[in-house]
Give the backbone structure.
Amino acid sequence: MRHLLDILDLTPEEIGQLIDTACDIIADPDKYAEKCRRRKLATLFFEPSTRTRLSFEAAMYELGGSVLGFSSSSSSSTSKGESVSDTIKVVSCYADIIAMRHPKEGAPMVASMVSGVPIINAGDGGHNHPTQTLADLLTIYREKGTFENLTIGLCGDLKFGRTVHSLINAMSRYSGVKFVLISPDELKLPDYVTNNVLIKNNIPYEETTDLIGAMPKLDILYMTRVQRERFFNEQDYIRLKDSYILTPDKLENAKSDLCIMHPLPRVNEISVAVDNDPRACYFKQVLNGKYMRMALILKLLEVE
Ligand code: NCD
């Protein structure tokens, strides 16, 4: 039985196969409409979500399956003191596959140790978010046609932004990739990612606070929200929240085929005036997420 806890649980070949499946679903959705008939997905969200939970649910419905679950820990027995392990043992009796989001780093790993069915990490604290990365990868593939020789700017909260950590892990496996890490000093990429991924694998990267200066070299600009819920101190959040706001004038020196991404939700990081720019890809990312989650569910349920 396979789980998806970390994007590195999938080999680059498997990611290629998921992309092929997603593209086939896009081309011929009817072919997939009954693939998960009588199968059930549980979505256990101990933390807020719009896109991730609803796209998992839409994905399972479009495969002909059904969905059960909860969207906040307050409406589950967690609020009575039940442990993650017990909740998972119970839900494994009802569902064929579980997507879970939890504020504690490592909770999906704990879940996988007791679960009778595949566990998908739908975001664990400030750690990882592998299925957002699947959405990001399909977007990069559809926009750029390749994962190689890309210069990727990641901007905003690189410390707590779990989507950033998973995307760096995933993209580090393709040749010719360079990273430009754009953040305030306080929100720099954690050392464990810099050391264990970038330095260890000899991946070229630079750290800067200057978004406009970095702009001309970027093929991809991945904006992120400052993760208010992970701050210990509200004053720090207020000081840092508007560090970067992408407005049309800041794109003046950007490449004409720049791909502007954001996992969403956005707060202030991208002005709505950028939405009509043909380089804005963040709403395409949302739709791509559903197709990749469909492909992932098929893979983990071992559906032909
Ligand atoms: C992200 C997350 O939950 O980490 N959202 C998402 O799943 N698309 C990004 C964020 O919350 O800022």
